[in-house]
Amino acid sequence: MTEAQKIEYLVDLSCRLSDEGQEMESIQTLRNAVSILHALEEKTELMQQLYAANSLKLAKMLSDADRIPEAVAYFQAATDTYNVLGDSDAASTAAKGVLNCVSQLRNRPADRIFLLVAKYERQIAELSITPNMEVDCAKICHHVANILQRRNRYNESATWFLQELDYLSGAEISDEIIFSRAQAHNELGKLNFEYLRDPGLALEHYERAIVLLNTCLETHESASADLEEATAMVTEIRQYLSDRVH
Asked: Residue 172 is part of which domain span?
């Protein structure tokens, strides 16, 4: 199947899913098509038109689903591409979508951080269609998780650390990958114990971190300190859980 055939299949599948009321699946399928179009090294005018049209369609679907920060990126992509193509009317329509989304976000200041998150989500979507993308995607997830943690968005941060672990599980095993997994488990332990108030889950993550860190002691200087911290946290959480029982 050629790239053009893949795109045609995904766009058609997205329409069918939407007709069946499966909006989330339809959005993700169209996102995959747009990512393939974006990744093409040489875009003919037809492919540029397809990229612009499907970016605009995806932006409208995301906006309708109240995923405003994500919609902004695709409205902007459509605007830029239509301008390159010289289609001022279509560019104006897409630009109005950008302005409308920005206006909505002014009234939802807590959601503005997700404009930044949406940019990274788009990067991951574009990487996901390339071979051996797991490590790069995992690094983006870790970065976003740290940003969200600093902004006190603890549930969202935990979700991104879990997504990092998911990508790392598909990467070729190495000392660096094992250490990265350990760090993610340590962060999840901290999040679940200190902020999400789930000591049982925190204990599970710290214990997994300890197992992984024990294999990294000779290859990573900071592994020893991380191991000491995780071990101390396991002791503290076990005591905490014991005190609650009694």
From this structure: 131-245
